[in-house]
Amino acid sequence: MPRLLRLLITLPLLSFALAACGPGTVPVTPAGGGSSSTSSSGAVTTDVLTYHNDVMRSGEYLTETTLTPGNVTSASFGLLHQLPADGLVDAAPLVVTSLTIGGAVHNVVYVATENDSVYAYDANTYGLLQKVSLLGSGETPSDSRSCNQVVPQIGITSTPVIDRSAGPNGTMFVVAMSKTSGGTYYQRLHALDLATLADRLTPVVVQAIYPGTAYGSAGQVGFVPDQYKERGALLLDQGQIFTSWASNCDDGQYNGWIIAYDETALSQTQVLNLTPNGLQGGIWDVAGLAVDSAGSIYTLLGNGIFDTTLTAAGLPVNQDYGNAAVRLSMASGTLAVADYFTTWNTTAESAGDVDLGSGSPLLLPDQVDATGTIRHLMLAAGKNDSLYLLDRDNMGKYNGNVANSDTIYEELSGALAHGVYSAPVYFNGSIYFAEVSGTLKQYALAAARMPATPTSQSTATFAYPGASPAISANGSSNAIVWAVESNPGSAAILHAYNPANLATEYYNSTQAAGGRDAFGNGNKYITPVIANGKVFVGTPNSVAVFGLL
After folding, report:
1. Which of 114, 149, 188, 210 could form a disulfide with 155 if both were Cys (CB 3.0 to 4.6 A apart)?
2. Three-state SS sequence of 196-257
3. What is the mean pLDDT of residues 143-157?
4. Do residues 529 and 522 lie in contact, with contact meaning Cβ atoms separated by under 8 Å?
5. pTM, whole model, 2 decimals?
């Protein structure tokens, strides 16, 4: 198993262990899914190689030694620079430390845009190191496909993933959408050298077929590239790059596809359609697929057909999993459903577009319940009013269209006034998220259970799409929760909170006089990225860099 994969898989255990560290503890293993190094000043630097820092999508960056509650104030912290970009920055920036480019060693921040460009900037001097366009000859980024979700063009929407051990300098894997002047659309998976941004391997055109009868198919359902966008972050696991596919709005004919490729050759390794004999069931969540330490893969599906007739094993008879939380396994060598949960009224929810798929799965480190039993839990939340804490070992399946017949680990019905369109995070025993037009909320777990009401919450509210927060800390000390007001029609605002009490705000980007820290309008898909004393926030035409003044 590649070194990066071992690190990513063990990160959840690291995060759990760090929660027990005393104040001032400096971890020796990175929280960012990659290597740590020591700069000339003696500071530990850490990579951020995947969305929300690890494959469980915890959102924890636990080697932050510069930013503290004492210095993240408007007097000493603020906007340092904006890194120019030629389109919307919907993908979260990624950070690689101590990389040699052009004979010099740099800490590098990578920026991907909806104009199908990838930039490499020096994270300290802000100098442009490399830039590449992923468009083929005569191509442009895709149009918006008559959908207002990504406008005016669709290029790179999902957060790439990096393997520092692949190739001579490390490799970034990224999906780019484009079209020709003749109206032919492409989705391509690229493997870019980190130092040059050149394709290390010939980009592969994403195409697939799967047995099924969806939309009248004669036994084989085909992947049609113009019907999809790759919104969910790419996943690197077991030497494979996993892609997951959403539609353009709810338009046209689409299904719930997961397609994987071998990272060494970009050869296709896995194809799974989760609504092969039904319809819809797109995978919308910004965090993409998540993986636990046992190697199981998890996702949430959007509105679509769920077969309410079940097999003897309790699985949908036609293999259609619309509006479900799904656990996947590759134990047999082929990606397949191992377990799932959907609500008792799943058909009505899908018909009303009130589905689980708007949110992102969050896998929790081991929790101990009141009987001393270790629980493997997952948070799922979407467009209805409930929070679902699922047992990953027994997710609950479907129990028939009988009111309130769900048999799951814990459900907080009525907990939300609006839907969750964002990615929750975990830190030190608590879950954090902000639903649409809601506050940033903390739920502190006790005996492996969520409280009925938030433990604390912010004063500020977060308009559509809510907020996908991130955590920085030095082990378990000096922790900060970061969240962005990112509504596209309003000024973006970066917030920093006390994770133990979200009513305590350390900083926001409106506090300094004269609009010093203003950084443009919101960009709905963005998640703040913390690395080595800096906070990186995507905008419609840049990445804003915050740090100590």
Report:
1. 114
2. CCCECCCCEECCCEEEECHHHCCEEEECCHHHEECCCCCEEECCEEEEECEECCCCCCCCCE
3. 97
4. no
5. 0.93
- Rg (C-alpha) for the chain, rounded Å, is 22
Inform me whether the pLDDT recorded for 237 exceeds 60.
yes
Q: Which helix (H) or strand (E) holds 468?
A: none
Q: How many CB atoms lie within 10 A of CB 52?
A: 32
Distant-in-sequence, close-in-space partners of 263: CB < 8 Å, separation ≥ 6: 163, 166, 171, 173, 191, 236, 239, 240, 241
In the block, which residue shows the tokens 């929660």?
19
Q: Is 3 left (phi over 0), alpha (psi -120 to 50) or beta?
A: alpha
Given the DSSP bridges, would you call strands 529-531 and 534-538 parallel, antiparallel or unpaired?
A: antiparallel
pLDDT tens digits for range 79-103: 999 999 999 999 999 999 999 999 9
Q: Strand 246-247 vs strand 228-229: parallel, antiparallel, or unpaired?
A: antiparallel
Number of H helices, E strands in the chain: 2, 43
Q: What are phi and psi of 13, to 5 degrees?
A: -65, -40
pLDDT in tens, 412-441: 999 999 999 999 999 999 999 999 999 999
- Residue 177 C-alpha from the chain's centroid: 19
Nearest-angstrom CA–CA distance, 49 and 59: 12
At the fourth CATH level, which superfamily is domain 3-548? Quinoprotein alcohol dehydrogenase-like superfamily (2.140.10.10)
Short-list 113, 115, 144, 109, CA closest to 128: 109
- In three-state secondary structure terms, 141 is strand
**Range scoring the smallest mean pLDDT among 2-6, 334-338, 469-473:** 2-6
| 216: Cα within 13 Å, side-chain hemisphere | 1
Give the burial class of 530: count Cβ atoms within 10 A of its Cβ; 0-12 exposed, 13-18 middle, 19 or more buried: buried
